[in-house]
Automatic annotation (TrEMBL):
<dbReference type="GO" id="GO:0017059">
    <property type="term" value="C:serine palmitoyltransferase complex"/>
</dbReference>
<keyword id="KW-0808">Transferase</keyword>
<dbReference type="InterPro" id="IPR050087">
    <property type="entry name" value="AON_synthase_class-II"/>
</dbReference>
<dbReference type="Pfam" id="PF00155">
    <property type="entry name" value="Aminotran_1_2"/>
</dbReference>
<keyword id="KW-0256">Endoplasmic reticulum</keyword>
<dbReference type="InterPro" id="IPR001917">
    <property type="entry name" value="Aminotrans_II_pyridoxalP_BS"/>
</dbReference>
<dbReference type="GO" id="GO:0046512">
    <property type="term" value="P:sphingosine biosynthetic process"/>
</dbReference>
<keyword id="KW-0443">Lipid metabolism</keyword>
<protein>
    <recommendedName>
        <fullName>serine C-palmitoyltransferase</fullName>
        <ecNumber>2.3.1.50</ecNumber>
    </recommendedName>
</protein>
<dbReference type="InterPro" id="IPR004839">
    <property type="entry name" value="Aminotransferase_I/II_large"/>
</dbReference>
<dbReference type="InterPro" id="IPR015421">
    <property type="entry name" value="PyrdxlP-dep_Trfase_major"/>
</dbReference>
<keyword id="KW-0812">Transmembrane</keyword>
<dbReference type="GO" id="GO:0005789">
    <property type="term" value="C:endoplasmic reticulum membrane"/>
</dbReference>
<comment type="similarity">
    <text>Belongs to the class-II pyridoxal-phosphate-dependent aminotransferase family.</text>
</comment>
<dbReference type="GO" id="GO:0004758">
    <property type="term" value="F:serine C-palmitoyltransferase activity"/>
</dbReference>
<keyword id="KW-0746">Sphingolipid metabolism</keyword>
<dbReference type="InterPro" id="IPR015424">
    <property type="entry name" value="PyrdxlP-dep_Trfase"/>
</dbReference>
Length: 531
């Protein structure tokens, strides 16, 4: 039975379009197909069986029947307060170790569209690894955050970074407030502000610390932080370090956010009922595990309605969204002045390292003297600075070429094509149609390691993710699409994914998209499979 779902519908069984259509200048479609009941039951059973065998193996280790490789307390310290929490390590010992070979794989080349992988093996069930010295060549890279393809060792960026390394060296050996502030740092910050269309910006050497060290400078005791339940660990840590009261709203759910905002205004602080000193909303542009895009027009509308502040983390969306790569604000055609604190990283689309905070000049002036990351951290190395400046100028077209614009366009085309093909094959795919982060659901614990191994056998490098990084029944593979991927690479990868999907029976979707070479942007046709 063929069904047509239009994007203006507020509720659909698979696709969810924005209900507040008047706030959106373009269709907003996200897919979160429900986990099939049988798959959910089998997934819980799989974890249950692994847990039972885990306790059995722990019993055998306790009686020295099986050797234990994990760190343990020394015999003479058994009566001390335990240094290692045994129960907390249960998952690591008995579940993670079984599929540990799927992570931390060492590569020995540039993490571009393809990479070279150091081969390794284990003779003790992944407790230790041996390296025979062989290299797997030309593995297609579907795991790195190389959205615009600037992670490369040739071209203008690599040349500029090399020249700066020769002239200035690598390390700064000082903080920005002492002897580590160079003219190139100042130029970078002016360029970032110009790129984002804001008054001022400041750069930091580490993306994680940009969140975790700056949020405590912006909020404190007596303040309320409203955080999306799927926010990155750096946002969560920053909120906790601030000492503010933290309340969590459902992922991308504007009704949940408005309920918390209304309650905060009506009831104020606990016990005293005094008004909150400040209400700060923490959200991300693209959520890196879900592939979803923040409903920014609605968040801004709520922020204005309830007089709150908005902190937007664009780690994955800057460079990857918008016709000119300016992120989720440009993607929705909004004014950057409506976002109080704009944060992003240089680690993804710019092929470098570090992060930035951007906004009004008085905000940046305040952070210069109150942010631990600005005061105590060593300056960003100049080769990294030069990589960012060169790649950003390329994106903006200031290098006199259209290379940056063409890469943004190619990334958008690759994303739409890759997502559509996976859905046509029958896989359950999460996230927004325009998100280059593409989660494909695996569900069962045994299939996490199996999928990663089978893909690598066929020369495709992927990232697999499971509990506790995801809900226990929502293990997944996460593909990251790049402008550096050619259509031939994507077709090769898709053929392999389909082959492995058939082998491991991963095509769970009950809504198979009808193949089409020319599908309208605002309409999608489905064929509902009989169960």
């Amino acid at each position: 039975l063929a069904k047509v779902y239009h994007t203006h519908l507020c509720f659909a069984s698979v696709y969810h379009a924005a209900c507040n259509g008047e706030l959106y200048s373009r269709p907003f479609i996200e897919s979160f197909e429900e986990t099939p009941m049988l798959v959910a039951v089998l997934t819980y059973m799989g974890y249950g069986i692994l847990t039972i065998f885990g306790y059995l193996r722990d019993f055998m280790r306790e009686w020295k029947i099986e050797k234990c490789h994990i760190a343990r307390e020394r015999e003479e310290q058994k009566d001390f307060v335990p240094l290692y929490q045994d129960f907390e390590n249960f998952y690591t010992r008995n579940l993670y170790m079984r599929i540990r070979d799927s992570w931390n794989r060492p590569i020995c080349s540039v993490p571009g569209a393809t990479f070279d992988l150091v081969e390794r093996s284990s003779n003790d069930y992944n407790w230790t690894f041996e390296y025979p010295g062989r290299v797997v060549k030309d593995v297609i890279n579907l795991g790195s955050y190389n959205y615009l393809g600037f992670a490369e060792n040739t071209g203008a960026c690599a040349t500029a970074a090399g020249e700066v390394t020769v002239k200035f060296g690598v390390g700064m050996a000082s903080t920005r407030q002492e002897m580590g502030n160079l003219d190139r740092h100042e130029e970078l910050e002016k360029l970032v502000a110009s790129f984002l269309g804001v008054e001022s910006a400041m750069a930091f050497g580490m993306g994680f610390a940009t969140n975790s060290m700056n949020i405590p400078a912006l909020a404190g005791k007596g303040c309320l932080i409203l955080s999306d339940e799927l926010n990155h660990a750096s946002l969560v840590l920053g909120a906790r370090l601030s000492g503010s009261t933290i309340r969590v709203f459902k992922h991308n759910n504007m009704q949940s956010l408005e309920r918390l905002l209304r309650d905060a205004i009506v009831h104020g602080q606990p016990r005293t009922h005094r008004p909150w000193k400040k209400i700060l909303i923490l959200v991300e542009g693209i959520y890196s595990m879900e592939g979803s895009i923040i409903r920014l027009p609605e968040v801004i509308a709520l922020k204005k309605k309830y007089k709150a502040y908005l902190y937007l983390d664009e780690a994955h969306s800057i460079g990857a969204l918008g016709p000119y790569g300016r992120g989720v604000v440009e993607y929705f055609g909004l004014d950057s002045k409506d976002v109080d604190v704009m944060m992003g990283t240089f680690t993804k689309s710019f092929g470098a390292a570090g992060g930035y905070i951007a906004g009004r000049k008085d905000l940046i002036d305040y952070l210069l003297t109150h942010s631990h990351s600005a005061i105590y951290a060593t300056s960003m190395p100049l080769p990294v600075v030069e990589q960012i400046i060169t790649s950003m100028k390329c994106i903006m077209g200031k290098d006199g070429t259209t290379i940056g614009r063409s890469r943004i366009q190619r990334l958008a085309e690759n994303t739409v094509y890759f997502r559509r093909r996976l859905r046509e094959m029958g896989f359950i795919i999460y996230g927004n149609n325009d998100s280059p982060v593409v989660p494909m659901m695996l569900y069962m614990p045994a299939k996490i390691g199996a999928f990663g191994r089978e893909m690598l056998k066929r020369n495709i490098g992927v990232v697999v993710v499971g509990f506790p990084a995801t809900p226990i029944i929502e293990s997944r593979a996460r593909f990251c699409i790049s402008a550096a991927h050619t259509k031939e690479m994507l077709d090769r990868a898709l053929d392999v994914i389909s082959e492995v999907g058939d082998l491991l029976q991963l095509k769970y979707s009950r809504h198979k998209v009808l193949p089409s070479l020319d599908r309208p942007f605002d309409e999608t046709t489905y064929e509902e499979n009989k169960e």
